[in-house]
Amino acid sequence: MRIGILALQGAFIEHEQALQRLGVEFVEIRQLADWQPETLDGLIIPGGESTVQGKLLRDLGLFAPVQAEILRGLPVFGTCAGLLLLAEHLNNDERQHLATMHITARRNAYGRQLGSFYTEAEFKGLGQIPMTFIRAPYIEAVGPQVEVLAEVNGKIVAAREGKQLVTAFHPELTGNDSVHKYFLNMLN
Ligand code: GLN
Predict the structure, then answer these.
(1) Catalytic annotation on 25?
(2) Beta-ladder partners of 167
(3) Checking phi first, is residue 177 left (phi over 0); if not, alpha (psi -120 to 50) or beta?
(4) Residue of 6, 12, 80, 90 with the most ligand 1 atoms within 8 Å of its CB, for mutation
């Protein structure tokens, strides 16, 4: 099993550490030459800044090939900014990025006061898990094909559609690898 980790910007090293703990091989995607989807079983899009990652994907010529592969069924796991890159709509931003998942997300949804916080909440099938939010989005609306996996304060913070998984929080920062294991189980 081999996972590609988009390593243009943001918290990709923490995803690498999670995969290392789980004994899973990975490759960093930094430029078009690194993009060999036939060698990948899945892709992780990390947290960071969605606008920066979106721009770099376009500038590096990665945008269309990555989008095409996700639409063809390559499993993908997006955390925080990664969620925003996969969302079909951002309702407080006119931008749209890969837009492969039928969700509407709100950027920086918790405002300045609660920009970053830690909580524990139920994740479907995993029980209570730790969740670290950093200037996080939440999901405001989901299409009929989307399964809601976790909510915090009545807001959707994790969801799945087919082989696409997103979390508004950063499971890679908690030391609890259960969401990564959930993703790896989706690859079979
Ligand atoms: N606020 C960031 C954005 O809009 C996301 C923050 C994160 O990934 N931790 O892209």
Answers:
(1) no
(2) 79, 158
(3) alpha
(4) 80
CA pair distance 19, 8, nearest whole angstrom: 18
Q: d(Cα 188, Cα 184) in Å, to the nearest integer?
A: 8
pLDDT in tens, 113-158: 667 999 999 999 999 999 999 999 999 999 999 999 999 999 999 9
What is the Å distance from ligand 1's center to 134 Cα? 7
DSSP H helix total and E strand total for the chain: 5, 12
Q: Report DSSP state, residue 29.
A: E
Instruction: Give me ligand 1 centre to Cα 41, in Å.
Output: 25
Residue 16 — very low, low, confident or very high, per pLDDT cuts 50/70/90? very high
Residues 6+ apart with CB under 8 A from 127: none
What are the φ/ψ torsions at residue 34 (nearest 5 degrees)?
-80, -15
Q: Ligand 1 within 6 A of 107 CB?
A: yes
Does residue 134 line the site of ligand 1, with CB under 6 A? Answer: yes
Q: Which atom of ligand 1 is nearest to the CA of 80?
A: 8
Q: How far apart are CA 33 and CA 54, in angstroms?
A: 18
Angle between helices 63-71 and 50-59 (to 10 degrees): 100
